[in-house]
Amino acid sequence: MAPRFLLLGLLAIALSLALAFDYSPLQNICVANPNSLVLVNGLVCKDPKLVQCNDFLFRGLHLVGNTSNSVGSRVAPVNVAQILGLNTLGISLVRINYAPCGTNPPYTHPCATEILTVLQGNFIVGFVTSNPENRLISKVLKKGDVFVFPAGLVHFQCNVGYGNAIAIAALDSQNPGVIPIANAVFGSKPDIASDLLAKVF
């Protein structure tokens, strides 16, 4: 009887250790082949003999985004669409420019946790915990501050300073996805029934 419990104990320890580590890609690089007609979860790899330095390079993060839109912000993504070499590596980046009073309205990344670093300006940021509590976790940030938005939770940023503001955010997915809450709920095609929305809101 004792050997059986020992075996079960060792199996439990082994499983907990195995689940405690990040996944490991099957190869060290898998540069995306955007021209492939094969559909997979991720992108098909380019022939390694055709990989070039530019597959791992993006230029332009220093450029100021045009914030003259209804929300007063502009997000410049750097994901697998911009750097083909990010394929299978599980990371991406964005630069966000904000006009005075500009916002990145409530949204969610269904596939990623986000870590935001303030480069310039002052922000109020926050996220809402999931049901049943739906509690707002919020903070005012200044230059050099870093804040984390857990994966899947609705979150936002708003420039509360008097000048333009800039933030950089890293995400733990090559393609984190983004769902702007208001656009998804009120801008779906076809529309969600207005009587249903009236009941909910």
TrEMBL record:
Main location: secreted
Gene Ontology molecular function: manganese ion binding
Stated name of the protein: Germin-like protein
Listed CDD domains: cupin_OxOx
Binding site for oxalate: 104, 109, 114
GO cellular component: apoplast
Annotated signal peptide: 1-20
Gene3D superfamilies the record matches: Jelly Rolls
PANTHER family: GERMIN-LIKE PROTEIN SUBFAMILY 3 MEMBER 3
Entry keywords, A to Z: Apoplast, Disulfide bond, Manganese, Metal-binding, Secreted, Signal
Location(s) in or outside the cell: Secreted, Extracellular space, Apoplast
Residues involved in Mn(2+) binding: 109, 114, 155
Domain of life: Eukaryota
Disulfide partners: 30-45
Domain Cupin type-1 stretches: 59-194
